Amino acid sequence: MIRRWLALGVLTLAVLLIGIDGTVLALATPFISADLDATGTQILWIGDIYSFVLAALLISMGSLGDRIGHKRLLLCGATAFAAFSALSAYSTTAPMLIGTRVLLGMAGATLAPATLALIRGLFADQRERSIAVGIWAATFSAGAALGPLVGGVLLEHFWWGSVFLINIPVMVVLVVGGVLLLPEHRDPEPGPWDLPSVALSMVGMIGVVYAIKEGFTSLSEGLGGDVVVAGVLGAAALVAFVRRQLRLPHPLIDVRLFANPRFSGVVAGNLLSVLGLSGLVFFLSQYFQLVHGYGPLKAGLAELPAALTATVFGVLAGVLVRYVSHRAVLTAGLALVGVAMAGMMVSLLVFTPIAPYLPLGIALFVVGIGLGLAFTVASDVILASVPKERAGAAAAVSETAYELGMALGIAVLGSIVTAVYRTVTLSPAIPAAAAAQARDSLPHALEAARDLPPAQADGLVDAARTAFTHGLSIASGVGALLLLTSAVGVWILLKSPGPAEVGVLPDPGVHRDPRGDRRIDAPCGAELRD
Questions:
Q1: Nearest CA-CA partner of 343 in 328, 358, 332
Q2: Residue 97: which pLDDT band, with cuts at 50, 70 and 90?
Q3: 144, 22 in Cβ contact below 8 A?
Q4: Could you tell me the residue range of the domain that residue 38 belongs to?
Q5: N or C: which end of the chain has fewer CB within 10 A?
Q6: C-alpha span between 1 and 332 (Å, rounded)
Q7: Helix %, strand %, coil % for the chain, to 5?
């Protein structure tokens, strides 16, 4: 028994770093922008390309792990992750950093589904598995929320590349611990790994997400041809992917699971709970540094409430679902994030451009509670919906939703912030070159102000900070509306029959309990309340 929990500790190292890597660049953004002379668009790509690639590959890598073994996939991925972290740390141009972040995303895609699938194999008892998944999800959430704090500590003493180098020693510990403690886990009767399906899923995910990201960025200028082409190509590839999965005897993932509104509702809840946090953390880090004037460490500490509550309530959620329905906990989590973002919107609108920290800190505290509850419960329900030999594919669905939420949070909410910021009204007295530079991004505005007379510089800085704050408030409002709407949708969808009734991934050990709305795991008699 002790060995199982030690193995869980090893697995949490992987998801901790995946979470940190998704948000650690938030505080480093001003330093990267200055050192690599990155444009506003390049900064957005540096921030979210990692999650885009991760999301595009997760389903394929989860299915690959079911076939070759999740322990093997995890150890190979961890080794590659360490190597690509070093490349990212020593990038010399913005395009190079974007490219190395792509490689990091590819390596990270091998880690996340492998960890959750190995948990499914390690913990057969539903009660233990709920707690284990709660710890796993809490670590993931804490990593995402701790990214800015870790970055702040490092940036106080080292250059921006240090935020990547911290991955290397942790990956070394993971590999050594994995070799010693982790059992191998794979599908005993795997089918072939279908390469056309892999290609279709990658093209589809990248195309659709690119179209969404660039579409929001260019809202004020109209959709470009590349956005339309990417969207159409991505949608067509996803349709072809679904049709192919329905025909294959051994699909990468059984897409018929999504016909169950409960399963689809949980996946959507997983995605949306992260969407709010990721975009919020990415731009709040810049807000605290560039508007409030905080140093990197102070800005990281300012976001600590989200990290603490996400960790605590992620663990508590695994216990809470014994007494309260999954439906109630997941809906409450989404609603809390939505309410917190609405509160943040009001604070930023009332106190422009510099809002006091207290209301923002309270909002971050509540966001962490909601994220911890929603992500843990969503992951647990998804994992319990399939037999353990298909756990890799199911884990990949959960992780894809998480990473899509991370990427879309930065892309959609970030694009709103950028679009609103670029409408900034500047004094006609400011030289045209300085005005053009200032409209690209807030860091560039502060840089342009250094070369202006004091009166013009003060006016430029005030206008830029006000525009950035206004954009952040509108993005918070959009996120709040989206999350509150999704909370209502999840509450309605989860009234439908549970995943065990779908009948597309049968597990002979799972059947309905005639006494009520519960599922029983026959070998261990553990209950899962719907």
A1: 358
A2: very high
A3: yes
A4: 2-193+252-529
A5: N
A6: 33
A7: 80, 0, 20
The predicted model scores a pTM of: 0.71
**Which amino acid appears at position 4 of this protein?**
R
C-beta separation of 46 from 27 below 8 A: no
Query: DSSP string of 430-476?
Result: S-HHHHHHHHH-HHHHHHHHTTS-HHHHHHHHHHHHHHHHHHHHHHH
Element of type H or E holding 164: helix 162-165
488: domain CATH number is 1.20.1250.20
* Whether residue 346 sits in one domain with residue 308: yes
In total, how many domains does the chain have?
Answer: 2
Residues 151 and 199 in one domain: no
Q: Exposed, middle or buried: residue 68 (CB in 10 Å: 0-12, 13-18, 19+)?
A: middle
Other C-beta atoms closer than 10 Å to the C-beta of 503 total 9
Give the Cβ contact number of residue 92 at 10 Å: 9
Q: Which residue is associated with the tokens 């050594």?
A: 176
Dump pLDDT digits (tens) for 11-36.
888 878 877 776 677 778 878 888 88
Extract the tokens encoding 18. 């995946």
Same domain (yes/no): 226, 290: no
Q: Quick one: 205 and 97 in the same domain?
A: no
What type of residue is 319? V
| Residue 43: per-residue pLDDT | 80
d(CA 262, CA 252): 21
C-beta of residue 68 within 8 angstroms of C-beta of residue 57: no
- Please give the radius of gyration of the chain, using alpha carbons only, rounded to the nearest integer: 23
Same-domain check for residues 356 and 223: no
Q: Which amino acid is at 447?
A: E
472 and 340: one domain?
yes
Written as one string, the DSSP assignment of 476-514 is: HHHHHHHHHHHHHHHHHHTTSPPGGGS-SS--TTEEE-T
pLDDT digits (tens, 9 = 90+) for 228-237: 898 899 999 9
Contact 471, 311 (CB under 8 A): no
Say whether both 304 and 319 belong to one domain.
Answer: yes
d(CA 51, CA 405): 9
